[in-house]
Design brief:
The complex is a heterodimer of chains A (77) and B (636).
Chain A lengths: L4 E6 L2 H6 L3 E4 L4 H7 L4 E2 L2 E7 L2 E2 L11 E6 L5
Parallel strand pairs in A: 1-6
Antiparallel strand pairs in A: 1-2, 3-4, 4-5, 4-6
Chain B lengths: L1 E2 L2 E2 L7 E5 L5 E4 L3 H7 L2 H12 L13 E5 L13 E6 L6 E6 L3 H6 L5 E5 L6 E6 L2 E6 L8 H12 L5 E4 L2 H4 L7 E3 L3 E3 L4 H7 L2 E7 L9 H18 L1 H5 L5 H8 L15 H4 L1 H7 L1 E5 L9 E4 L19 H7 L8 H14 L3 H16 L5 H4 L9 H13 L4 H4 L2 H9 L9 E2 L2 E2 L11 H7 L20 H7 L14 H20 L9 H12 L5 H21 L29 H15 L10 H6 L15
Parallel strand pairs in B: 3-8, 9-14
Antiparallel strand pairs in B: 1-2, 3-4, 5-6, 5-8, 6-7, 9-10, 11-12, 11-14, 12-13, 15-16, 17-18
The chains are: A alpha+beta (77), B alpha+beta (636).
Bound molecules: iron/sulfur cluster.
Amino acid sequence: METGRVSVTGFGFLKERLGRDTTVPAGQTAAQAVKSLHLETAGGLPVTPVVNGKVVDWGYVLQPGDRLQLMPTLGGG
Amino acid sequence: MVTGNAEFSGVYGKILHVDLTTQETWIENPPEEVYRKLVGGRALIAYLLLTYLPPHADPLGPENLLIFAPGILQGTNLPGSGRHAVGAKSPLTGGLGSGEVGGWWGHEFKRTGYDALVIHGRAPTPVYLWIHNQQVEIRPAEHLWGKETADVQALIREELGDAKIRVAQIGIAGEHQVRFAALMHDINRAVGRTGIGAVMGSKNLKAVAVRGALSLPVAERKRISKVAKWLGDNYLEKAGWAVEMGTPMGLIFMEQMGILPTRNFQDYQFPEAGNIGGQTMHATILIERDTCMVCPIRCKQVVEIPETDGPYKVDPVYGGPEYETLSAFGSNCGVGDLSVVAKANERCAAYGLDTISTGGTLAFVMECVQRGLLTEADTGGYLPQWGDPQAVLEGIEMIATRRGFGDQMADGVARLAARIGQGSDEFALHARGLEVALHEPRFKPSMLIGYATGPLGGDHITSVQDSDYAGPGDNVDRVNAVYPMPPLERHDMSEDKLNLVYYETNWHHFLDCAVMCYFHPYRYEHMAEVLSGATGREYTIHDVLAVGERANTLSRLFNYREGFTQIDDRVPRRFLKAFKEGPIAGETLGPEMFEKMLRRYYEKMGWDRETGYPTPERLAALGLAELLLDIPLSAG
Ligand code: SF4
């Protein structure tokens, strides 16, 4: 991975849409990164950002070398 | 229904009452405002209980009422409307009991020409009801008593000579008045929560079989068709997750996020989650997907394990486990074997048990055993360990038949903890007596406000789940129709979050009045449009949300009348303490913020800040004062 970038992995629906080896620039929030990738929901399910194995806020500012995982998150039902 | 100058459509204007003690039946013709303001489902159930049930009646006595209540939209053929609600005073909580269910029964019932069914009294011997068009028969059911649900449905259809009859029934758990017995529909769809099946069992009522031929009159069909077309154009994109796999999809991701309920919520991750998740289920034992009346989404699971594939044969007639069940008998009992969980699901459908409360009770007993609080002498030798498949399956059978220690487990975790003592109430995970659902409130803190104040107690359905609104998407867009706000972080407890909780809780209650499926991505304005089209009366989005607020408020009035007070708005302490490590380490609402949010929510709902009782001003604003002339205007 290039320096100054963040790897992004998707699960469920997002996996196919993201493909492999997707990266985004560091220095932006998780919300901005997801918006730039047009991955706000996973087949209608909300998504939760996880960075380096820890659940984070959407306002978390991504750091160089971070691993961002996008998790489809089940609500009621 | 002719009322005044123009017809109020979407209903027949008739509620059928049946008294099993006297064998009398009669028809009630409610005024238009009952339908217009309450719409059906939970609001109608709470209204009928407040109107006809004597205060403090024994939930398992003949005075209790068993109420089947579809909503106005049932029968309109709008996708997602193929559901109905059933309610009573709950023998588990002592407050409002109600649950909603899909399948086909509700549609068939409405085609008989009634808007609701209220059952009074108790039959001297087992009976079942047969309602076909406008006729009602009370028929003997001794030959059905003690049988499993699939056999009962087949026998009733054979006896009445019609394979298209729809059957709602209790299993042996309801016959034994297990306090969390379910009411099964079409064999594999449950009104699971709050022990409605026990109420039916206490009435010696085995089943209600229905067959109808009427078409519901609606005022403006094209307004409903327009919304149905929108759903048809959008469901693949907006509910693609439900089409693809449905609720089991989420389990594995919850494990990775550290929010999968594990071993009675003591842990947050379950290494064997991959074995019991939806992806494994779909790759191994899933044989087909099932649906409800007029639903293109087809979210339901059907699984099969043949006898040749090991010790746990599973009959596909009982459907398959959804997320709650996978977690209840899987991770939360420490079981990592999908075939055991599928078997547990099958047994609960065959016996008529709520999988959430059954799994929650077994997990509680396992934790008691883990902590050395139960001995062989206490339980007759039943000392279940985490992950023991036989202990889970044996426990289900013991509960359903009230055999041995099962007689105590059948009363639920609140009563069990009171008997066991020794501090076990610390980990008896219930709210107002209802075992909590399989969602992690430390991750979704607003659920605790729902658990504390909602009509049923530990029910996830009406509670707001913060992660649904943390990022952009349809949920935030929906709320923006009445309250402009950006996505809100999960632990945000600002005024915006409070407004979100207020509006969306009312929306959820509306869905349980209408009675609509939560998985359909409708917005407030869609429901205003279809209600207007169905009834011939104009509804705004604020009218839609007011229906939900009325349901929550009427439920509150009923619960206070039955003895609940503000003190009962409590949640398990375990959820107010953060995990020390893991992906959500340090996250919790905490006791002080919980109390603060609770009081602010009362104010939002127009409930007194100190007593939690609805204020006369809000009752008047909701138009409830004139509906219920006898309601007390204070909590005293
Ligand atoms: S989405 Fe699922 S639960 Fe909802 S109506 Fe369709 S099949 Fe039934």
